[in-house]
Write a structure and sequence with these properties.
Elements (H helix, E strand, L loop, with lengths): L46 E3 L4 E3 L1 H9 L2 H5 L7 E4 L5 E7 L2 E5 L9 E3 L2 H6 L19 E3 L4 E3 L1 H9 L2 H5 L7 E4 L6 E7 L2 E5 L10 E3 L2 H9 L3 H4 L27 E3 L9 H13 L4 E7 H4 L9 H12 L3 E7 L4
């Protein structure tokens, strides 16, 4: 799912450089575990969800958009924060309704974002139950995974192939069976995977939406608990190392991005005006502004700097999730 972008006539502008598209998993009776690796073209700037008062940004936003967005993963339930994962290591983490994202900076894209092995966690003590027992290859046209001894077919197979396959969900850990959902109390046909649980909703007429991920992000939050600071409403966009793939400092993009030339008031008394201007920038669907600063205003006397002008404008940009290009004019002789 892509966030809709509105465009406005007005002042034009800017710059810079992301590209490509993440393809789907292989298709066939035995779906391929490999896929071509191409850089994401999805935006990385923070996007705010008023439904849960949280942002998604950086590589998490790209992964979310490239692999089904709201339909597959649901809304973000926390901010990004450092948390220990199932392998005992600590990663930058964010919970969504239906998944938990981890950022693995040592991996190349798209494998730098992984879904937590929540399926492995919840079935650890259930492997003796009948649905989790390996089955022989039925040779009936279903996809068969010798790695776990389970099959995929019908709407579940279609969903697996369409939304990322092995990378997103891992191997199946069960055959389809009926189970009560602990969140809504209803009974669904489900199938467990290394990184999630799927539910079949035959009451939905559109076959593209009959399979939904179980609310395993929400369930895990309730089961293990998360810090209150992580679930508290975010009052400003993430910056620097809080953005997956971001490390602070100058921003590097991989494709041309656009924005506006703007005039911002260079003191904190202008906060309301600056927020109104930047709100219009975001409303138009852009994530950049360019501001011009006069050297004599920043350094009125040689060696004496007035940073309030720049600080107030950068603070306004951060608060509104807008990236800034600074153009410094009229340097001294």
């Amino acid at each position: 799912m892509r966030i809709p972008r509105k465009f406005s006539l007005g002042v034009a502008a800017l710059l810079l450089l992301i590209s490509g598209l993440v393809p789907m998993a292989g298709v066939g009776a035995a779906p391929s575990a490999s896929k071509a690796v191409v850089a994401s073209s999805a935006p990385i700037d923070p996007y705010y969800f008023p439904e849960t008062n949280h942002y998604i940004s950086g590589r998490f936003r790209q992964y979310w958009e490239d692999n089904g967005g709201l339909f597959v993963f649901g809304y973000p339930l926390t901010r990004t924060y450092m948390e220990v994962s199932t392998d005992g290591n600590t990663y930058l983490t964010q919970y969504f309704e239906r998944a938990r994202f981890e950022y693995h900076p040592a991996n190349s894209q798209p494998y730098d974002v992984l879904l937590t092995l929540v399926g492995n966690e919840v079935i650890a003590n259930r492997k003796q139950e009948q649905p989790f027992q390996p089955v022989p290859n039925p040779n009936n046209g279903s996809a068969y995974f010798a790695e776990t001894g389970h099959t995929l077919s019908g709407d579940f197979l279609t969903f697996w192939q369409r939304w990322g396959g092995l990378q997103n969900f891992g191997f199946p850990w069960s055959e389809p069976f009926e189970e009560v959902n602990s969140v809504d109390g209803k009974t669904y046909t489900v199938q467990y995977f290394e990184r999630g649980r799927w539910e079949l909703h035959p009451e939905i007429a559109d076959p593209n939406y009959r399979v939904l991920l179980g609310l395993m992000g929400l369930e895990r939050m309730q089961r293990v608990g998360v810090p209150t600071a992580a679930t508290a409403a975010e009052t400003r966009p993430p910056t620097g190392s809080d953005i997956p793939g971001g490390s602070g400092g100058p921003y590097r993009a991989n494709h041309i991005e656009y924005g506006f030339n703007t005039y911002l008031i260079g003191n904190f008394a202008g906060i309301n005006y600056n927020n109104q201007v930047l709100g219009k920038v975001r409303e138009a669907g852009f994530g950049w502004i360019r501001i011009q600063l006069l050297w004599k205003d920043l350094e009125p006397v040689q060696g004496q700097y007035n940073w309030e002008i720049l600080d107030s404008q950068v603070a306004a940009g951060n608060a509104n999730g807008v990236k800034i290009l600074v153009s410094v004019l009229k340097s001294p002789d």
